[in-house]
Structures are given as C-alpha cells and as structure tokens.
Specification:
The chain is α/β, with parallel strands linked by helices. The protein folds into 2 domains: about 250 residues, 3-Layer(aba) Sandwich (Aspartate Aminotransferase, domain 2), CATH 3.40.640.10; about 130 residues, Aspartate Aminotransferase, domain 1. About 40% of the residues lie in helices and about 15% in strands. The strands form 3 sheets. The chain has an 8-stranded mixed sheet with strand order 1-2-10-9-8-5-3-4. α1 crosses α9, α2 crosses α8 and α10 runs parallel beside α12. The protein is globular and about 65 Å long. It starts with about 35 loop residues before the first strand and ends with a helix. The N terminus is likely disordered.
Amino acid sequence: MFFFCRFIQHRAVQCKGGGRLLCPGGPIRYGNTESSFRTENRACQKAFFPCPGRPNKVLFTGSGADSIEAAIKLAKGATGRDEVISMELAYHGHSGFSLSVGGKAYYKELFEPLMPGCRLVPFNDLPAIRAIASKRTAAILLEPVQGEGGIHVATDAYLQGLRTLCDELGIILIFDEIQTGFGRTGKIWFSEHSGVVPDIMCLAKSIGGGVCPNGAIVYRDTEQLAGYVNRNPFFHTSSGGGNDISCQVSSKVIDVLLERKLWENAEMMGTRLKEGLTRIMENNASIIKEIRGKGLMIGIEYTQEFMGVLMADCLSNSGIFAAYSGNAPQVMRFMLPLTVTETQVDEFLNRFKKAVSIQRLYLFFLLPLSKIPIVRKWLNEDDILIPVNVLLRKFGM
C-alpha cells in the first residue's frame, strides 16, 4: 500500500498528449522558460493565485533545489543585497545555494566553505529574526511547514510578522512550498491559511504529480522582481525546466486538482487521520510524544530518537512505507495521497496501531538498555538499530 509520497495517483495515461502547457498564451523564452500567466487561463489562475496581491510571473526549473537556486539568485540580484536568512532544521536541497541555506550541519560539513551570507535562526521565532534582519538582507526563506525538520507548522502570527518585517526593510519573502503546495495542507497553497502573500514561491515535487519531474518559481509582477528578470533574462537557466512533457503533465495535475477540489479532501482526510493517530497516542504515551501537522502533511514525534528508525521498519512489515525526518529522526512523516479515502485512512490507522503494538514489545528490551549512554548512542545509529530489529524478529518478537 502506498501511504507516503504519491500525490494524486492518477494514471500516467491521463497525461498522454496532455493538453496545454502550464502557462499557455504567455511569452515563452526557451533558455529561461519564463512565462506570464494570463487571467483568462482559469486553471493556472486558480492554482497559482488564490490570494490578493498574487504573484503572476513564473520561471520553470528542473527540480526543487533548482527552484531554490533561482529564487535566491532573483532576490539577491533584484535587491543588490548579499544576505539570506533561513531557518534551523530547514531542508531546501543539496545544490550550492540550497545547501548553504539548509539547517543541518552534517550535510554542509562535507562541502564547506559554502556560499557566504547565509544565516540561520530558530523557526517560528519572530524576535530572533528581527534581531538580525537588516537592509543587507536580500531574502527571508522558509518552509511554511518544515518537512525534514520534523513537521513544524508556521503560525499565522509568525508569517504575518515576517511579511511586515520584509515590507519595512525591503526584504524579499520566499516561501518554499515544494512540499506544502498543490493542496497538501488543506488549501491550494499554505499561504492561504494565514493570508500572507510571499514575493516568491518555490514549487516542485507535486507539480509533476509523481509522474514527471518539474519545478518553478512564481514571483510578483513588480518592477523590482519582474523588471530585474526583463533586464537579465538569463539570470537563471535550466536544461530541463519548462520542457513540453513536464509542462503537459503539470497542466493535467492542475486540472485534476481543481476539478476534484483535492485540497478539500486533504483537509477532511487529514482531520480523520490526525484524530485517529491522537487516539492511538493517548494509549501509547511511552512511545508517541506528539501528533502535529496540517491537512495531509502529518508528523508523529516519538519519545526517543531511535524510535523513528525502529517504527519505520515495523511499519514496512505492515505494508506501510514511512520515512523519518532527516533533520529530526524522532519524527516520522506521513503524506498520504490527496485522493485517499476514508476506508484507506482507517486501514492505515489499523496497520499503524498494530505496528505500535510490535514496537512496545521491542521497547520492553530496548528502553532499559537505552538508559546506558553508549547504548543510546548506538541505538541512534541506523546501521546498528536495523540489524537489532531484524534479530528481534528472528527470535519471534
């Protein structure tokens, strides 16, 4: 059963000969594949611009990391500033700028020195970001819901405060909606929850519906941003960004999303899933610390770091593909398809409950050992814990 990363689960044949490009009618310049969205394009209008003051320019890219690169370059070029503020525990990719603004030291240490001028602050901490933001700051970049960081949701007050701060200091506000976008959190864009409109949005993953890679940045049609692109049309190029096949797939994804209003299903099924997981948590307080998230982007935080790896293995044996968060191993992420049904959610909950029961048996032996510091250190290592889990299974545990 696919319970993690499939977005819509529509057949690839739906995309065969798939209609229009994502942005038909606008001027397309291959090389940087920049297109203007037209108001008469109903699907793209509703998909990309549900908020007042909406962006209406797009530049296609080849991936999520490529979108982050383009957004940072646009912000720095348009403002003439050299500093970017991003969040601790953030994940934006593994390329130059995207790695530099990431929030995990391990990924960076392999390739230092990285891009200069990148500063980190705690997520959801407005005073911390106010303390370092200045007129040297080109952009503030964040995921509205941290994915790799452990499914931490930005509050409305925090996002509204960032918008005010950026307006005061002339800073470009960038939302990385690569995971949250296209209905995942119960709205087409996460920004709709707070009413905050970013200057640039980064898109990827779901834009291709799990069928074909694609990415984009969407930015405001202002003299500062659009004017900079017009004067520097090759500020960012991409070999595969905006190719015909990817755009036809993306176009079909948007059609399905809008026709079926999948964000509404994400809201309803996400509520059902969260309520079910909360009931399981209440009976397993020694294992599950917290359930959090928005829509169908749910995180489960376990009471011990090593439990994330252990539960991933338990769940895989129950037919559920699950992944713990790379920057927060004690947190497991669940991102069910937006088309998921009540029956499938209930089946998922039943399997999860059984996996937790198996976990409790394992912990009967492992928790006492985990109180020994060196054993705890070993348990937090994937290459140690997984063989231990396999041995326990062989002995019938």
